[in-house]
Amino acid sequence: LEIGPGTPAFLMALRALGLTAEGLEANQDLFEIARRQGLTVTRGDLLVSPSTMLEQPFDVVIARNVFDALIVAGELQRPPAPRDVGRQALQQVARLTTSDGIIVLETAGGFPFTQADLRDADLEVREGTIGEGLLVLKRPSEASHRLAVRQRRGGRWPLFEGVYRAIANRWGPL
Q1: CA 100 to chain centroid
Q2: In angstroms, how far is the first alpha carbon of the chain from the final one?
Q3: pLDDT tens per residue, range 137-155
Q4: How far is CA 167 from the centre of its chain?
Q5: pLDDT grade for 76, boundaries at 50, 70 and 90
Q6: 154: alpha, beta or left, given left = phi > 0 and alpha = psi -120 to 50?
Q7: By CB neighbour count within 10 A (0-12 exposed, 13-18 middle, 19+ buried), where does 146 fall?
Q8: Does the reported pTM lie above 0.85?
């Protein structure tokens, strides 16, 4: 899912590679451009995502410059958006992502959320920092999340040893 595909060059590139991709676009004109290109795009904004998208979350969610243009009550929030709006948007991105899914966020104006907000949304930073303007996040599954918490406390759950190895092999150490 690309949130805010704008002129949908990225979605078109994914389609050209044979990948299935969808968009969520708030701007009516940009939505129509994407639809004319034959792309699967839903009209709506991040803070009020359609329920069908929440019922079928995505393996990968990309939001490039969306946090620079958050819309609240029909009004564009000038960067940086208020922290409560940024936190709400971050939580919505997490809900749109499957367990063990990947999120890529990019911003030019700065992220309107903190490291604590990432933890509250149950997201792990895989690459980047909030200050860099580019983040690659992972939404851990419940099992891997419990295991990571247990690991940080210094103990291991023998039952999850195989799960931990599989996660470590795929994503690197927790």
Answers
A1: 12
A2: 25
A3: 999 986 554 444 444 444 4
A4: 20
A5: low
A6: left
A7: middle
A8: no
